[in-house]
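cache lookup: miss for this entity combination. No prior model stored, computing from scratch. Input as submitted by user K.M.:
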Amino acid sequence: MELLILNGLVNGLIVGGIYALVGVSLTLLYGVLRVVNFAHGEFVIAGSFLAFVLFSSFGVPPLLAVPIAAVVFFAAGWGLYYVLIPRLARSDDPELMSFLMFYGVSIAAAALLLLLFEADSRTIDYTFTPVSMQVGPIYVSTARLVALAITIVVSIALALFLFKTLPGKALRAAIMNPEAIQIMGVDIVRLSAFAFALAAALAGVTGVLIALVFPAFNPFSGAEYTIIAFIVVVLGGLGNPVGALLAGVLFGLAEQMATVFLPQAMAQIVGFVILVGTIFFRPSGILGVRFKR
Amino acid sequence: MAARSRALDSADRIYFTLAALIGSVLLVYFASVPLLGLNVAFHFYLMLWITMASAFNVASGFAGYMPFGYVAFYGIGAFTTAILVKKAAFPLFLALPLSGVAGIVLALLFAPTLRLSGIYFGIVSLALAGICRLVITNMPEQLTGGSFGLQLGSRAHPVQSFYVMMAVMVVALATILWLSRSRLGKALRATRDDADAAEMMGVNVPIVRLYGWLISAFFPAVCGGVEAWYTNVVDTETAFNTLTTAKTVIYAVAGGLGTVTGPILGAVAMVWLDELIWRQFPLLNLLILGLATIILVLFLPRGIVGTLLRKKPQWRRYIP
């Protein structure tokens, strides 16, 4: 039993790290742009498929796919921002309409992946040597440990960027008070485009990591990650990147523990219950501070 | 004062004449579909989507909520009819109204969510629909048929279910037509625009919201039941498919939220377009539905009727 719990803890940390990245990119997007990206899971899964194509067609190992995904998704996000967002701002209720528009993006993206890759589940047949490593009394696959290491590096880099650099501080300032930051001379459109591109890049990188950690993915997996991203974002407080990182790890642990102690079916419901419960009893998230305004 | 009320009367007269005209055209057209040997399946689903989009409009256009888990009511209705007919040997015409009751019960369970607003309401609604699907999926197989679903056996009767669907649509449209001119409808709109101000004017905000919510939940549940009868099979994958929510929302928005004619027009236009695309490019169907949604939000966020009324605000009094 102790081994099972320990296993759950380690896997919870690994999966939680991935959830943290999914959540932090969605929360950045919401915080700065006030749009709800319902297609976030599809962005992430597109990253997994990019890693799959890079490896199976060009022999590029997943580790190298991480920076490639970051660049490709950053560029795609930048372009997508100018196509979608400026026009959206003209509607009566941009926040709610963004939900609907990204609903459309999500349907279109999943359909596109379906046309390109068909409905079969895909895996990347890449193995590290050794295949697994001993962590205390248990064995963990090297791919998962590598993914955890990348998650930690990306999180630290993101935290340094947000708190130590000028553009990072501008992003946080835009989340807190978008009006004031414009008075300070920041070009909010360019900053928003940057936030969108950064969120897309993070989503793409997370997708590559998912291809390492989880056995398989298919064009429909996106919806699951969208829900997970929502849970993490709400748990961490809407628009709060630090909260999202914490909430991701917490939710990963909760989910893995639930699979240890509860039957499979119940474990799935846990996430939804956490989401509904948080909104009702602690709408500002686990940290309890409103990051916005 | 007298002149003003006379002007209102004449506006009302035009309003209800237009409504009666549109209603009778719809009625005569749909009633003659099976008689003239037109495509029954296509028109059945057209009526279903008109009903779904119109009922959704009560929650979104009138009350200002965006229930992104709207499919929960549809799914609950489908399973209620299937279980009652198959496992409890209820007659169909008793099971269908009970599906509506099941929708109302579920809506009452979800009623606490009405104090949320905007994005929070949408996300919670989505999560609750997910919970409903998982709960029904994990019920004992003897009751819900597990992953194979439930077959209703030899009760299928396409033409009969077609006319029942038509009756449901007529009741739904009549309810919404009444609502749009009733005290309740005005109170709902006032609450949507400014809940505090409405409360100050003596509107019982929670009750008004609840009534709107219940109306909005009843019809999709009945639709789910009728569709279960029509297709003769119910399973969790199709009954709780998020695409049902997506289509309902898109059709309603395409026509214009907050008007009676909007969702009708939106559903007719989009179902027709969907059928056309489906026949030409079956593989591209989903992709085009997604792109159509994006284009709709970006270029026609108020829908067909909503855009028209914005250009000609004086028509607002006459167009249902």
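stored under new cache key. Residues 81 and 167 of chain A are 18 Å apart (CA to CA).
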